[in-house]
Amino acid sequence: LTDRGKRVPLDNSPLQIFVKAKKKINDIFGEIEEYVKDTVEYMYEVEKEGKIVNKDQVRNIVEYVGKVHSIRDVLQRDHMKVAFFGRTSNGKSSVINAMLRDKILPSGIGHTTNCFLQVEGCPSDEPYLVLEGSEEHCAVESVGQLAHALCKEKLNESSLVKVFWPKNRCLLLRDDVVFVDSPGVDVTPNLDEWIDKHCLDADVFVLVANAESTLMVTEKNFFHKVSTKLSKPNIFILNNRWDASASEPEFLDQHCNEQEEVRKQHQERAIDFLVKELKVCTPKEAEERIFFISAKEVLQARMSEGKPVSVPLTEGFQTRYFEFQDFEKKFEECISKSAVKTKFEQHSQRGKFIANELRDLLEGIYNDALKLKEQKLSERKEVNDKINYTEQQLMLVTQEMKKKIHNMVEDVEQRVSKALSE
Ligand code: GTP
Ligand code: MG
């Protein structure tokens, strides 16, 4: 019924689009860093000569070392972020737990989420949490303990607690997905603060609605605010607790038809909300963003995988389970494509700009060096020409002199021998 056993690492998972792009851009920036460092070393050498490069040019290039280094820092920490919102008790924490395949976040009565909780992967084998404004790692062994730690702290509802969960226990966390759970949108007057603090860098939003009722004004208002601050946010709508409507007594009688009607109505309203009200997608896209699921069932099924006692199943469980898997697939595709664009596009432009700047600068130095060389050569040629001319003149004069002396000697000899014979 379920995808039994642990999910094997599937490297054709849509999340790999982001994972691979992240590796690639990190490698490229590694090369750019080397390239900048080499250039700086070379510039220092050339600057010592004092002819082609001046101190300002060197200083400009040295600044790139810091810039590239901080981009690399950001790139290494980049992740895909999904934030869950909805009215209280709709099952936000349950959906996250179902996706993470473990009871990580407290949920249910007495475990209401009263501040923002961010779950992200950590390389260590033990989970821990970090409160806002603190660096301290607090160990958590169980959900109960986590809930207790959160209650004890009397946290502000807008504050953020980070839960670090071992990457080796969950594929989504291994692949750099970060989950943000929130308190119910109906319990706060601070929606603007929430959005500014927690939403501006989210790649995907999931509205966890209650399939037993229609979308509420508070839920809609929240997303209206989000879409004024972000251009075309990616929003999924999960009609959760779909199992509960399956077991409604009136549905049990005439069953399928009634439930189909309710589904159609919810679907139409949700499409209208995304397409006509928020204007964030087309009707066709909206159909791929709305799902009817039961987080509670999926979590139960996944937690009992491999255990001998299996949970009793409600009518329609399998269909709802498949729909949850379908949501996960569409979600993975959407988040990884969107994150590649929002997280890497700007950096790759910046990388190109830096590489071009360096190339132009080095080309400039090369051209200046060529000019200097040509100048020296032509200077040398002028001197050589002068020397040649003088040498030629000297030769001519010498030859002339030789001739004259020769003639003179002959003349003297003739005259001497004439005088002697006389
Ligand atoms: P707050 O943190 O208080 O805002 O609530 P939440 O939205 O995180 O809801 P939570 O996950 O805590 O779930 C509330 C209750 O609903 C829990 O008792 C869950 O077991 C139950 N629940 C969650 N999802 C489902 C579902 O799909 N079907 C049914 N029947 N119950 C569910
Ligand atoms: Mg909750």
From TrEMBL:
Catalytic reactions on record: GTP + H2O = GDP + phosphate + H(+)
GO biological process: mitochondrial fusion; mitochondrion localization
Membrane topology value: Multi-pass membrane protein
Keywords of the record: Coiled coil, GTP-binding, Hydrolase, Membrane, Mitochondrion, Mitochondrion outer membrane, Nucleotide-binding, Transmembrane, Transmembrane helix, Ubl conjugation
Subcellular locations according to the entry: Mitochondrion outer membrane
Location (main, coarse): mitochondrion
Gene Ontology cellular-component terms listed: mitochondrial outer membrane
Domain Dynamin-type G: 76-328
Domain of life, per lineage: Eukaryota
Example of a GO MF term: GTP binding
Protein name from the UniProt record: Dynamin-type G domain-containing protein
Organism placement in taxonomy: Eukaryota, Metazoa, Ecdysozoa, Arthropoda, Hexapoda
Residues of the full protein shown: 27 to 448 of 771
